[in-house]
Amino acid sequence: MHKNGKTNKTMVTEISVIVPALNEAKYLEATLESIANQNTNVPYELIVSDNGSTDGSLDIAKEYTDMVLQCEERGIGPARHFGAVNASENSRFFIFIDADTIIPGYYLSYTYEMFKTKPDLLAFSTGFRFSEQSEQIKLAESVANKYFVMRDKLRSATLPGFNTAVRRDAYFKCGGYQNVLLEDVDFSRRIDKLGTVRFFPHVKVVNSSRRLDAMGLLGTLYYYSQLDLGWELNSTWIDKLAKKLGIADLREYIGIR
């Protein structure tokens, strides 16, 4: 697959790469290019699930993808799920990549081999580094990656939504992504009940630091405290509590649509 070149329809699609988007023109092209230029022989499709972009994201998406979907239900969880529901019926694996995340050229081959050689593995995520590298950003990057490694070793892996690979049958069996606060934690908790879920720090994707820039370091630490809280409480309960306490749009505060 490459720009202006779609999946070879004579081959059975093995992987569906799903990118949710909402006004992501600043980042989307680099993300889609990294997916379209993968060094792999595994047949895959690239899907953008758009949430109502008005900034030119759709034009960019059409240059690179096999399918551009219009998801009417607002939210990154529904956008990801809409992509999964509309993926090729032959696809055995889903990879969810956020619109501001760049994956290394071997990512799809690595994913395919991991699922092929580890039949008990249902889903995984990988480490990341921020594209910007100030001292504050480096600190937050280190803390975040160590946090995910700790969760993987001590309890069960949290799968950050910007970079998650999952077997198709396990995805639908656990109910997929839903429209709740901390949708990636909610998804991680449900799929963990089905089997093995892992976080692999040796693989690194590149993620934008825009949420950190908006939240600051304290906001970032608050976000990760919410991740831990998310393991103990139903995410819809957290949503209701935030409204009851009058917290101004907690989703926006921690960078979740």
In short:
The chain is an alpha/beta fold and 257 residues long. The protein contains ten helices and eight strands. The chain is globular and about 40 Å long.
Textual characterization of the structure:
With 257 residues, this protein is of the alpha/beta class. The protein has a domain at 15-129 and 156-206: Alpha-Beta Complex (Spore Coat Polysaccharide Biosynthesis Protein SpsA, Chain A). The protein has ten helices and eight strands. It has helices at 25-36, 57-64, 76-85, 107-117, 135-154, 168-174, 183-192, 210-232, 235-245, 250-253; strands at residues 15-21, 44-50, 67-70, 93-97, 101-102, 121-130, 163-167, 196-207. Strand 1 (15-21), helix 1 and strand 2 (44-50) form a beta-alpha-beta unit. The longest helix is centred in the last third of the chain and has 23 residues, at 210-232. The two termini are 29 Å apart. Its main location: membrane. Keywords: Cell membrane, Glycosyltransferase, Membrane, Transferase. It holds the Pfam family Glycos_transf_2. GO terms for molecular function: glycosyltransferase activity.
